Amino acid sequence: MTDAEETPRRVRQLRLVVEADDWEAAVAFYRDVLGLPEEEAYEAEGGARVMILDAGRATLELSNPAQVEYIDRVETDGVRSPHLRVAFEVADTAAVTDELVDAGAGLLATPRETPWRSINSRLDAPAGLQVTIFQEPED
Asked: Distance of alpha carbon 74 from its chain centroid, rounded?
């Protein structure tokens, strides 16, 4: 057992909170097309609505500006990513990218193999997010 396994985790979940001007379109895109299962949903006065979607395992990737520039060059031929970009691992980048584009996402970069051997695409998605769709190598 490693030290990390012996010590209880202080942080148990990473939750990315996104304000979506077109809430219905965002739910349809992320839940119905991308396939993130609904965990919880709540409504409150004044039309307030929230839905928590399960995105699988969460990580926080911290990159310095030089690394972000490198990733942008590799993934998109230099299309600059915003300060915050969301990445989703899938089983088939090409198929999921096509589905998301058909659902209204803007294609920034077609699927391509990266130097770290993943297959990545880049999209402008609902709720103002720029997303990377990636598929890890199968070995």
From this structure: 18
Number of residues in the chain: 139
Residue 129's contacts (CB-CB under 8 Å, 6 or more residues apart) are 18, 85, 86
Residue with tokens 């992320």: 30
> What does the pLDDT look like over 33-45, one tens digit per residue?
999 999 999 999 9
- Domain limits for position 42: 3-135
Q: Are 109 and 77 in contact (CB under 8 A)?
A: yes
Which of 49, 61, 48 lies closest to 88 in space, CA to CA? 61
How far lies 70's CA from each of 32, 74, 88, in Å?
Answer: 32, 6, 19
CA distance 79 to 38: 32
Find out whether 134 and 87 touch, Cβ atoms under 8 Å. yes
Query: Could you tell me the CATH number of the domain that includes residue 25?
Result: 3.10.180.10
Q: What is the pTM of this model?
A: 0.89
